[in-house]
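Review form for a predicted model. The reviewer records the input and the model, then writes brief findings.
Reviewer: anonymous (R2)
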Amino acid sequence: MAEWEGERSTDAVVSADGTRIAYVTEGTGPGVIVVPGVLALAQGYSAFADALATAFTVHTIERRGRGDSGPQRSGHGVEDDCADVRALQDETGAAFLVGHSYGGFVALEAARNNPGTRKVAVYEPGLSVGGSMPSDWMGPYEKYLAQGKPFDAFVEFIRAIGPDGARKVPRWMFRRMMPRFMEAPEMDMVIEQLPQNLIEHRQYVRLDGTYHHYAEITAEVLLLEGDKDQRAWTASDQELLASVIPHCERVTVPGLDHFGIDKGDPDRVAGLVGEFLSRS
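Model under review:
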C-alpha cells in the first residue's frame, strides 16, 4: 500500500468536560479516527496513518495524559475516552473508527448506541471476561510507582500482560534484557505513561464481563488479530466479541503479534483496514 506524501497538521478539540484533546490529521477522503493503545503516543501510529491516508482523511487522537492533550482527571474512566472520541467525531464528521488494544476497547465502547459511527476496525482490542485480564500485577505495580521504581513496575506489567512465555522469564532477567530492546527515547515515553497505564487497565477490571453490551453496536466491525505470541485468554475473548457484535467480520493476520498495527507491519494492516472501510 502506498504512503501519504503530503503534510500532517495538528489541532485540538475540547471534550465534554472541558479537557483539551489534541490530534494529528493527514490525507484526503472519508474521515477516520485512529485511537492508540496504552503506553503509546499518536506519533507511534504515523506509519499506519501514512498508509491509510492515501484514501482517507486520518485523524489520530492523542489520548488524555499524553502529548499536548490535557491530563486524566480524578476518577478517569473509559467513558472520558469515549467522550473525547465523540468530540472529535463532532468536529471532523469522521464516521470510521480504528482502535488498537485499549484504543480498540475505547472504539467499541464509543460505537455503542452511536449512529454517527458507520464502521469500526479494531486490532486486538482489550477485553476482560470472567477475570481473563490479569490484575494481580496492579498492587505491586502501584507500590513500585509510589517508591519511585518505574522500571520495576514496568517489569511487573510485562510479565503479567505479555505473551505466555513472558511469565516464565525471571524478573532479574527482564531487568537485564529490557534496556537492550528499548531505546532511551521510547523507554522515557513509556515511563512517563506508567500511571495512565494502570488507570486504563483498571477499566478492563471495572467492566469485566460486560462484553454483551457490544450488541448495541450498529456499525460494521472488523476484528483483527495476529497469530503470533498469543496470550492464553485472547482467542476465547475475541470469539465472544465476534459472537455478540451484530455485524462483525473476524480476520487473523499471519505472522503478526499484538503490535502488528503500529510496529510490526503497519502497511499490511492498513491495507486490510482500508479495504474494509472502502467496501460499500
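Findings: The chain has a mean pLDDT of 92.
Further findings: The chain has two domains: 9-128+210-278, 138-201.
Recommendation: see findings above.
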